[in-house]
C-alpha cells in the first residue's frame, strides 16, 4: 500500500515498463561470461541451458520489435554484470582458499546454520510433528486462513520442486563430482530451519482481511516486525525492496523462463511447436489463467494434485534405475562421502566441492529467499509455529529426497565421468543439466525422454501458478488489492511472451532478482529470530505437556459431530 498511499504513479509506470521488459528474455543468462564467473539460476526451478547467440547487427528481415528487444537486452546486460559482481563476490577467497566462495552462498548457508543452532535443531525435533500437522491431525476449518496445511506445503513445493532438481543436480555432480551431492544434502538439512523461521514469521505477521483473504510474507514481517523493534524505517525500505524484487522475479524466472525451457523439450516431440511456438504459449496461457484467476484457493487445490503426481512419477523412475543397479548403491554412497572430504590441492578441493553443493541446494529449495512464506501465510491455523514446522518439510522433500534421487541415478550410471562419456562432457560444458539427467535415465529407461518432457512441463506449470501468487501478493502490498486483476492479466501476457521473445540478459536480470530477495529476507530473519525462539519455546512447552491434546483429532475436524 506504500506506493498507492503516496501516489508514486511515475514509479508505477517505470515498474510496469521494467516488468514488461523482464518478460522479453527466455534463455540462460551466462552466455558470454568467463568460466567460474557465471551465476547459477535460483530452483525456482531453472534449468541451466545455453542459447544461441544473437547477431550483433540488425538484418533487413528483422522487425522493429527484435531491434528494440536487442537494445533493451544490452541495457540489462550491464545491470546483470553489476548484480553478478555483488551476488558472487568472493572476498578474494579464490586466492587464499584455492576456490571461490560467493557472498550469496555464505549469506544463505551461514544464515541457515546460525538459525538451526539458535532454534535448537528444530528441523530434527519437529520432523515427526510436522508430518502429523501436514496430515491434518491439527486442522480446524474455523481457523483463520484460506488453505489447509497440506495445500500450503504443496503450493510452496510447486515453486521449488522443478527444473532445478533435474538440471541443477546434474551440473553439481558433473562439475563437483559425487561429493557435491553430500553438500547439497547438508545444505538442505540446515535450510529446513530457514524455511521454518521465515514461514513462522509469515504467519505471525500476516494480515487477514474481513473477506478472509490473507496477505503475508517477508514484505509484511519486514515492515511490521522490524517496526516493533524500533527499526521502522529500515523495515519499510527492506519490505519495499523485497516486494519489487519478487515482482520482477515472478515475471521472469517464475514465468517467461519456465515457458521457454519447457517448450524447448516439447519441440523435440511436436514439430508444430518448433514452427509455431506461440501455440504452446497460448495453451499455457489458458492453463495458467484458469487457475490463477481463482486466487490462492484454486492454486492450492491444483498444486495439491500436481505436486504429489510429478514427484511420485519422478521418484518412481529414479527407483527403477536404482533397482536395476542395486549392487552399485553402496559403491555410490562410498564415493559420495569420500569425495565430499577429499583434500586435493590443500583446502581448495574440499571447499570447491562444498561450494558447488551448497550453491545448487540453495538455488533449488529457495530456503532463505522468503518466497515460501507468502504461500504458508495463507494456511488455516491459529499457531504460527505450527505452519513453520510444516514448511521445514520443503527442503527435505525438494533436496534430501528428489535431488538425492537424481544425484544417485547420475552417479550410478556413471555419465558424470567425462572421460567415459564424451557426450556428457559436452552437456556439462554447455550447462545442459537436463540433457545429462536424460542420458543417465535413458541407459535403463529408453522411453524416459518422454517422461522427462511431461515432468518438465508439469514442473514449469506448477512453478508459474505459484510464482503468480507470490508476485501478486507483493504487487497488492505496494499498490492495493484493486490492482490484483491487472497483475494477473500482465502475468498471462508474460506467459505468451515467454514463448515468442528470445533476448538474453533481461530475464537473467530477473533471475538474479530471486537470489537478491535473500538479502532483505535473511537480514529480517536474523533480527526477528528472537521472536521466533520465544514463540517456539511457548509452543513446544505446551505440546510436550499435552496442551494441544484436545486439538488433535486424527483426521476429524475439531468441533465436528
From TrEMBL:
Position of the signal peptide: 1-30
CC per GO annotation: plasma membrane
Transmembrane segments: 96-117, 166-186, 237-259, 279-299, 306-326, 396-416, 444-464, 485-503, 509-528
Primary localization class, coarse: membrane
Cellular compartment(s): Cell membrane
Bilayer topology term: Multi-pass membrane protein
Protein name, as recorded: Amino-acid carrier protein AlsT
